[in-house]
User: Which sequence fits this backbone?
């Protein structure tokens, strides 16, 4: 499990971009999606998530904006940029190659 | 719910309030609260939900590190240390040069006074230039916290200015004391200049810091 966690953590940014490719989203929603898709096996720490947001933002792969809520606190939403989409495709290709190589080795 | 807010407040307690840090705090809080609500809705009791939420935050050190004090302050402090030590060095040099001119080379008093006055003058100029040119607190964004901070900063700067002026007044009096005493050889009476000091500083305070 810890090896799995390490590998997943190495792809945090790609996972976030993959989700934002479909629609704009915010921190908790992305984490909930990860939890649901992995059937409660995996979940990001908030600190890891925000660090990834910060790096993606600094590189110009995502943008953020505040979404007004009818009830409760406002949320910070993230949107993928064109550069982000390109970067996501590269990361995905990279992962496909890694998978192929690992399949040959293991 | 309030327990989560308290916990987040505590995480941010050493962080300077800027727009960036306040927004990060707001984002974290709204994410955590939604997670808490979800856990409650899924049948967790309050204590379990709270613990899972707090446990899920992880290590925020890296995230908060860059929100701490800007490095610019450090650079200004280094520059101030350099300028002050340079000036103090020059003041000492001024005294030494006077002694050398007067005692060793036995030059006229005027020359030793001029050398003292010249070197001490340069040192004073460097000090004044440095403290006048230190950048004011730079407003990073338009949040009210920044504006308030800038006001406090302006007030502190006024205080700094006053104490810098005090130093200058006293140094000037010292210089004038030596100059007059050497030139007119009136040591028996020239000490009276030091009584003028408090008078001058009080007047300066009244003129500059009228609003205090």
Assistant:
């Amino acid at each position: 499990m810890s090896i799995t966690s390490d590998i997943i953590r190495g792809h945090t940014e790609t996972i976030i971009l993959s989700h934002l490719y479909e629609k704009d989203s915010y921190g908790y929603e992305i984490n909930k999606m990860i939890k649901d898709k992995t059937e409660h096996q995996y979940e990001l720490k908030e600190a890891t998530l925000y660090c990834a947001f910060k790096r993606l933002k600094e590189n110009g792969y995502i943008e953020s904006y505040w979404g007004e809520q009818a009830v409760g606190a406002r949320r910070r939403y993230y949107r993928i940029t064109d550069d982000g989409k390109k970067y996501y495709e590269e990361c995905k290709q990279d992962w496909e190659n890694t998978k192929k190589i690992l399949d040959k080795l293991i | 719910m309030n327990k989560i807010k308290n916990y987040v407040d505590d995480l941010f307690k050493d962080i300077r309030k800027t727009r960036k840090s306040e927004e990060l705090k707001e984002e974290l809080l709204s994410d955590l609260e939604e997670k808490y609500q979800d856990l409650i809705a899924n049948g967790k009791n309050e204590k379990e939900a709270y613990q899972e939420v707090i446990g899920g935050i992880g290590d925020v050190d890296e995230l908060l590190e860059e929100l701490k004090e800007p490095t610019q302050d450090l650079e200004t402090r280094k520059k101030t240390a350099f300028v002050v030590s340079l000036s103090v060095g020059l003041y000492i040099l001024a005294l030494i040069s006077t002694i050398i001119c007067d005692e060793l080379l036995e030059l006229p008093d005027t020359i030793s006074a001029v050398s003292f006055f010249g070197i001490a003058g340069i040192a004073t100029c460097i000090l004044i230039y440095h403290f006048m040119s230190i950048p004011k607190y730079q407003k990073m964004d338009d949040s009210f916290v920044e504006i308030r901070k800038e006001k406090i900063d302006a007030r502190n700067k006024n205080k700094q200015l006053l104490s810098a002026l005090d130093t200058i007044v006293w140094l000037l009096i010292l210089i004038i004391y030596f100059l007059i005493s050497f030139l007119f050889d009136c040591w028996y009476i020239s000490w009276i200049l030091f009584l003028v000091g408090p008078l001058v500083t009080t007047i300066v305070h009244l003129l500059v810091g009228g609003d205090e």
Q: What stands out?
A: DSSP finds five helices and three strands in chain A. The radius of gyration of chain A is 15 Å. Chain A has one domain: 2-105.
